[in-house]
Amino acid sequence: GELIEAKVNKLVSVAAAIGDADLQKTTGFLKTAFDEEAKVIACVASCKKPDMQTLQSLLKPTADQIGACYDFAGDRKNKAFQHTKVMSECMQGLTWVAYTQGSGMSMPMKTVQESWNSAEFFANKLLMTHKGDKNQTDWVNTLKELMKDLAAYVKAHHPTGPSWNPAGSDAKSFAGGAASSSSSGGPPAAPPPPPPGSLTESKPAAKPAGGTAALFSELNKGEGVTAGLKKVTSDMKAKNRTDRSGLVKAPAKKKAVAKGPKVGKTELAGGKWFVEGHVQNKEIVIEETKSNQGVMIYGNEDCIVQIKGKVNTIIVDSCKKVGVIFQDVISTVETVNCKRIQLQPLGKLPCMSIDKTDGCQIYLGPDSLETEIVTAKSSELNVVVPQGDDFKEHPLPEQFVSKFADGAFKTEPAEHGGG
What we know:
The chain is of the alpha/beta class and 419 residues long. The chain has nine helices and 14 strands.
């Protein structure tokens, strides 16, 4: 607990050193959420498992901070919106405390780990944007270390969910005095996660795809804790849909762009996932995957797609300003007819094929450094690889020189002078 508290305080200090008011506000959400969560952990250690209404009361302060951070990430006046997006994704990890057996939710430690996996995509952008800025790098790396420490804490103390004390007192009395007993001695000075409470009680329609908001909303109704998480549900699958139209037509897509955000189709049909026609949708998540399934991402613009688990292939076709975050891929990841896309593997994959793509940023991790990248008819290709605590960007050649010698042509990347 003390280790995590130290990391939180360090994060606050680094934000103060950077000096941006919006960044300090963003970091403050996390600080307050962890402070409130420590009270919940104290209750877990000293009280019996409460009823749902009491649990909501305990968890609401933390839930409010998660919701506030989520809202601030979408505030156009927020000058540190990239930092806030990273923070918002990380704070989703605090929902581990909502885990119960049979809920369909990831195990507590995995919930924390997955939150960082989602945040890392945006964190890498920050590191590239502020390359060479020690304070900015420290902010990102401290947050990363904090999430790792939180995952370790949860694994050690609450591996299968909050460890309520069966011989403890009634949590109702604790909930009533929680506001005034913020720092009174309780259980582990720990810092875990948040709750099933009521992020959406005050703004139910504001976050239609927000994982935490939907989670807490469902808990209020006593239903499965993951029923409202931002994932593909059974009613979105082809067999349960009535609108089985084909790929989104170009005219419809243009019309959607003119009007702004649009939620397209995300469905499973014939052993393949189809993600089509989304515009300005950063909350597309596919979780119910199998290793023999493929994923087709077609005709989307200004979106982020997250693919959980292991799949066979991923194809990104005719997309613009789309980021794809995925785990293990058995065969290959292909892009064709795309502009300004970003790819980030979190696991292993043998090959990437980049064809007819203008502007492609690939973020490789430790597990994907051996990936073979095949390119054709493409430009502005960059691969970012980890280098210590930082990242290094490597441009891939797009011009080649061929020379005839010894009866055959030899082709090599063109070399440009440094001028």
